[in-house]
Structures are given as structure tokens and as C-alpha cells.
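REQUEST
  id: r-88c1
  op: predict_structure
  target: Cilia- and flagella-associated protein 161 isoform X2
  payload:
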Amino acid sequence: MARKNYRTCVRMGNWNEDIFLEETKLSITEDGFIHYGDKVLVINPDCEDPHGGQVVFGRLALSVTPEEMKAHISNDIEVPCEVTAMPGVSPIGRNTFIILSLDGNALGEPIRYGQNFGLATTAGFDDKMLYLGSDHKTMMKSAKKSWLQDVYLTDEFTYLTFWQATYFDPQLRIEYEGFPVPANTKIVIKHCHTNQALAANRKYSLRTYFGKECEVACHTHLDSHKSEKPLNYWVLCTGDPSDHSSIMLDRPNPSSEKTIPEEQAVSTDAP
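RESPONSE
  id: r-88c1
  status: 200
  body:
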């Protein structure tokens, strides 16, 4: 009788979805800051548009979103790969990102406002590294629904994948330049090459392999005071040291366990 032999490297069933959704552990910050090499969630905090039109609500996490057909037939993630903002902020393979230094020599050092860094993800794979990138929009390349500047994942770490953190309040932005970026605090993430801010476009939902999610684009949305709107706000979220399956944004904040406030970040000496 014929018998089929399967090696351990053979993957069967919907294995790639299991990889994307496998739980991950985020980095734990001991000094309250974000460091090169940290594993974080990139979260757009819950907000409501006073002008209406919003169709996606709640906290959203930046996520890897492969095309559904390619996810079924391919043993790898094809690039460029789409990026969306998913509802729910539990750390899993597809929404966990790594903070990278440009030369690889600053591992463990805090990133600072105005300093270039990279955002990368393995999407749960052991031998894959994808880098968050963007470029000027063209007639052939733009965000699917808003037609704004596209954001994608690529396997090439170039200037198109460099980003900067800026303080969310433009009136204090110069004062904070050069100081360490606090963890679990809202910031604006700007693309170095185009100077546009990363945005979760909550007016545009997309049907993805994982359900309805929010479009992500690169565009600085300003209000009447020339300040970025909440869809440009992001939080680099770390893990909860008391519960590795949870995040700091979900942790109760008694006075004895508060994370470092923004005012303390300014007291740290800038270079």
C-alpha cells in the first residue's frame, strides 16, 4: 500500500494565517523610552472626527496585509506588500514592528525626536524582514481609496524606508528636538524623503484577508491651527512587564506604576 511521507518542513492547511496571527511578545521598557531594537505595536489611538465621515473606530494597529490570493498560494510574502491599520491591539505576528537604526550600531540606545530610524517587521516569519516605506504618489501608485501617498512594505532598506518621530504639539516641537522618545505616548511619524506624516485614514475601510481594516497612507492632515490631526497621531506601544501577553496601554495606571511622563523626557539631556 502506498504511503505518503511528509517532512517537518512541509506546511499544510492554512499555515500562513496561523503565522500572521501567532501571538508575539513586545519589548519591555525599563526607563520609559523607545530604543533601537525594541519590538513594539504602532498604534493610532481611538479618536472621533468632529466633521463626521469616520467609518473605522477604536484603537488601530499598523499591520502587514498580504493580498488574499497570494497569501493562499505563496509560501512567502511578496513585495511590495500592503499595509493597513487593524482593529484590536493584541500583539501578533502581523502587527509587531522592530525599531531599526540606520547603521545597526545603536542597538539598545534610545531613539530621539528628529532622528532617522526604520520600522521593520518579520510578520511572524523567521527568515523574513520587511521595511515600512513610502514614496511620492504618481498616477500609477497611490493609496487605494484616498489616492494619497502610498505606504507599503519592501525587502530593501533604503532612504525610502527612513522615518522620524516628532513631538505631537508643533508649538513645542523645537524644544523637544533631540530628546528621547517616550514609549506609550502619542507622536507624529514623518517620512524622511517626502516629509509627509503617517496617517490612519479612518474614512476609508478596506476588505482584507483578515476582515475590514483601515487604509494607511502618508499625508499630513492639518487643522485650522496648522497642527496635525489625530489620524496622524501614533503610539509606539511596549509590553506590560506584569503580563507579557498584554500592552502598556491596557495596564491600569496607579500612581506608583505610571510610565514616565512627557515632562520627564524633557529633563533628559539631549546630545
